[in-house]
Amino acid sequence: MTLGFTLDTPPAFGARQQREHLGFGVFYGALSIMIIMSLIFAIALKQRNAAYYAVFLLSTILFWLKLNGIGFQYLWPDAVWWHNEGFHIVYLLFVGCALQFSKSFLQLDSLAPRLNRVFATLQLLALAGIVARLLGLYEPVLMLSFALLVVLTFVIPFASYKVWRDGLDYAFWSLLAWLLYAVGLLLSIISASTSLFSWGMTPLFYAQVASLLETLFLMIGLSKWLIQLELERQKAISQANEDALTGLGNRRRLQLAFTQLKDAMVIDHRPAFVLMIDLDYFKQINDTFGHDAGDKVLTEVGSLLLRICRESDVVTRYGGEEFAILLRAQDVDTVVQVAERIRVEFASSPTKHHDHMIEHTLCCGIAEIMNIDQQPSVQEMMKHADEALYQAKAAGRNQSHVYAHKQPHHIV
Ligand SMILES: Nc1nc2c(ncn2[C@@H]2O[C@H](COP(=O)(O)OP(=O)(O)OP(=O)(O)O)[C@@H](O)[C@H]2O)c(=O)[nH]1
Q1: Is the pTM of the predicted complex or chain greater than 0.90?
Q2: ipTM of this predicted complex?
Q3: Domains (ranges, CATH) in the chain?
């Protein structure tokens, strides 16, 4: 054991104490802020990981309050037994919390089940140590707590490295954090228990700085993980509203867009239309050239619609070989022009499939959302567009019709 001594004049001692207290203030203040933030994450986002992190930070605070004597000096000056005898309990608590957070943060149960079992075993050992200490055992618990603190410096960086290499990006921050912890702890132990360096208690100060950086890095990792969760959630939502074959929106997307449209119409009173498209004799295309060819035609319709429609239009595959577009326009003539461009371009661009050029046509049915005060439903609106479409089919296909009152009228 080596101890460093400095002789100070009273003013220099006062100044040193002030600096020290400032340092402790920054350290405990930063940890407390991180605890509050992670508790907010845990409650607002219902994420267990963030709660484990908060508990781990609490155990880190307790660890350092005990180690640097601040706890005894200011928080529990009368609890002499706890201060003298509780060290190992606090170390073991820290070990258990660090393992719990890392297990969950690194998703070891699914990504590295064997390491997960190792972590769980170490946690059990830590728990057994706490019980043994409470029962009065000293020496073996002392050895156990030091052994576990050292084991942490290997197992957590190793597990972080493994899952990071396997593709869990944010595990990098855990690796960095725990390597820093490892260096700080190992230097403190070597300095305190051997005469290799004559650094006295200085490494303890650096270990505390390392501990702060470690928790900061873990916080960065946790934030990255939360961002990734949010991105995945958004992706899942957009996939739920997307048609897998064409990449257009699906029926659900149309329903959502319709709800938003109703709100927008109340504000700006601009007319809105639904344009329904149905391919002609599509069954024959499937029967003659195969389902793959049919799929290719559908995909090309998707690209054509996206090319012709504006970004603000909601282009969806309504089902099978039917497509529906929700669009705002000054008048019905503008929508008819859009429908005609789609119809003519589709008819004049056959789909190449192997050695065949598949000729095809489509019909368009247009319906205006008459009066927003009437609050028409999607189903009602689609029924109007469908009626116009039916008329187009009945009139010989490859044409566009507009639904007018009860009587759809032919325009092309
Ligand atoms: N390849 C392919 N075919 C599909 C898909 N969804 C629906 N179909 C086919 O689309 C065809 C639609 O046939 P019908 O409803 O008879 O319509 P149609 O042959 O286009 O006749 P009309 O609309 O009256 O001109 C059926 O054969 C469906 O199997 C799909 O995702 N891919």
Answers
A1: no
A2: 0.93
A3: 10-239 (1.20.1070), 251-410 (3.30.70.270)
